[in-house]
Specification:
Blueprint lengths: L7 E10 L8 E8 L2 E6 L7 E6 L4 E4 L1 E7 L6 H14 L2 E8 L12 H12 L6 E6 L4 H4 L2 H7 L4 E5 L14 H5 L9 H17 L8 E5 L3 H14 L4 H8 L2 H18 L3 E4 L5 H13 L4 E7 H5 L19 H12 L5 E3 L2 E2 L3 H4 L21 H11 L4 H15 L16 E11 L18 E11 L2 E5 L2 E2 L15 H4 L1
Parallel strand pairs: 1-4, 1-5, 6-7, 6-14, 7-8, 9-10, 10-11, 11-12, 12-13
Antiparallel strand pairs: 1-2, 2-3, 5-15, 15-16, 16-17, 17-18
Helix pairs in contact: 6-9, 7-8, 9-10
Length: 498
């Protein structure tokens, strides 16, 4: 039988299939046709496949949807897209959702998104090894008027607010924020601006009811006034250093207060879908819980990062783990895991932001916390980190699939992603649940050159990643050319039908 006449382009045999929204792992063969899952059955005749891949009883997860990445923030976008999407594939990520904005970093330019975003898309074209989409932050007041255009013409339906940016810098205190944001001297990036973003999102939904489930506003929840005051206290006191000092300088109640403010603004503006990003502490989780109970008509999505789940302030990699909001003490880490196990976390991400060593630490004073840059890469350890530490605490593989695949796909309008079922994109990750490995930057495909997870021992290693039926990563090597597609959202319909 010629390959053209075979029922499947690819059959992946002997898979222990991990589906979200189920309670057990089932042995199956998987048939793939035209980039989609076509059949999941106990046994598929190998003669029906043009190609055969033996999974050898590995766990088969749906491709992870890393819903919080930054590509092009510390390196040119075209360069970063190549290297960091390789790292994503290494981590079992098949869809990368990247935060992007005008201002310093990224493309280092201001102006309307009608001009800025096409440049982002052109620069990104043929540079991603995984599928990709973008969240955009309305920075300039004029951007608010572009939100309908972005949603209807470019498929950008998720918008971000950095609640501390108005008067506080990306890496610490700053009195040059208008220059950093590249907005006019008389413009303000403040609570009123955030209110107007939410009002605009609500109007987009009113004008386009078919987008009601998908248009959302995401918030980095920290209040600048608290950060400024506590940073001054910590610096003057001088008795704390490293990650603990940064935790104390950006205390958890700065997150909690921001969540309350964001929640009330969502209520006031009738903005129905709010995403609370990278919750890092007990106080943040408690604030999010209280807001959900107080405002049940607002659909709050709660996000946690793998970094905040795998590291605490005593991490041996020190300032390499500087990030906003900060890495927290162990008691906060364990509370985050409790929230994950109790179903109070909706999705887990990497918040990947590749920052090279020469940029991360100040060359003249590498031990200076206040001069170190914020952010680090970690998408290559997303699935392994969640699986390793989660299963050790009682997290089921199926629930892990919900947290890293199904839930973010559904929230952000990626309806053909996040499950292993007929009609879905054939994004498949094979993970060896028994392989224990020690994290080493030397093995990473990221361009970062170090990792704050260095030396951690994880059990459960990604061995192979398929994107729409194409093998893109296998045994620590990338296969083929970049085949990632830009996904305007909502994308597909399989998940909605399910």
């Amino acid at each position: 039988m010629s390959s053209q006449n075979r029922e499947f382009d690819l059959i992946v045999k002997n898979v222990r299939v991990v589906r979200p929204n189920e309670t057990e792992v089932k042995q199956a063969d998987i048939g793939i046709k035209d980039g989609k899952f076509a059949s999941i059955a106990p046994s598929i005749d190998a003669n029906q496949g043009a190609e055969i891949f033996d999974a050898e009883q590995k766990l088969g997860f749906p491709g992870a949807v890393d819903a919080h990445m930054h590509v092009g923030i510390y390196s040119p976008l075209a360069e970063d897209a190549l290297s960091e999407s390789k790292a994503a594939a290494m981590g079992g990520v098949t869809t990368s959702l990247n935060y992007m904005r005008t201002g310093k970093y990224y493309l280092n330019k201001g102006g309307p998104y009608a001009e800025f975003f096409p440049q982002v898309l052109e620069t990104s074209g043929n540079r991603f090894y995984v599928d990709y989409a973008f969240h955009l932050a309305p920075i300039d007041p004029a951007h608010i008027d572009e939100m309908d255009l972005l949603a209807t013409q470019f498929g950008v339906i998720s918008f971000k607010i950095f609640m501390f940016y108005g008067s506080y810098g990306l890496h610490g205190q700053s009195d040059q924020q208008n220059k950093f944001l590249m907005i006019g001297d008389d413009d303000r990036y403040d609570f009123a601006h955030f209110e107007f973003i939410m009002r605009s999102a609500a109007k987009v939904i009113d004008d386009h009811p078919e987008l009601r489930d998908y248009v959302s506003v995401s918030l980095h929840c920290e209040v600048a006034d608290i950060l400024r005051a506590y940073t001054q206290i910590v610096q003057q006191r001088g008795d704390a250093s490293g990650l603990r000092a940064y935790h104390e300088a950006r205390p958890p109640h700065a997150e909690g207060l921001a969540i309350w403010i964001a929640a009330y603004l969502a209520h006031e503006t009738e903005c129905p879908n709010i995403n609370l990003l990278h919750l890092s502490s007990r106080k943040a989780i408690e604030a999010a819980r209280m807001m959900s109970e107080t405002l049940p008509h607002i659909n709050f999505g709660r996000e946690v990062t793998v970094g905040h789940l795998l590291m605490d302030v005593d991490s041996t990699t020190g300032l390499y783990a500087k990030v906003n909001p900060p890495i927290r003490p162990r008691e906060d880490v364990e509370y985050l895991w409790k929230a994950v196990l109790d179903g109070e976390v909706d999705w887990i991400v990497s918040d990947h932001a590749c920052c090279s060593e020469e940029m991360k630490l100040d060359p003249s004073d590498p031990g200076n916390l206040w001069l170190a840059k914020s952010g680090f890469g970690g998408t290559e350890y997303l699935l392994s980190g969640v699986y390793s530490e989660g299963t050790r605490r009682g997290l089921s593989p199926n629930r892990a699939a919900e947290l890293v695949s199904w839930n973010p796909a559904q929230r952000f309008g990626l309806l053909d992603k996040g499950d292993i079922a007929p009609g879905f994109d054939a994004d498949l990750v094979l993970l060896d649940p028994d392989e224990t490995f020690t994290v080493s930057a030397a093995e990473s495909l990221s361009g970062q050159g170090y990792t704050p997870f260095e030396g951690q021992e994880l059990t459960g290693r990604v061995k192979s990643t398929f994107l729409r039926g194409n093998l893109v990563y296998n045994e620590n090597a990338i296969h083929g050319d970049p085949k990632g597609k830009y996904l305007g959202r909502p994308y597909g319909s399989a998940g909605k039908a399910a």
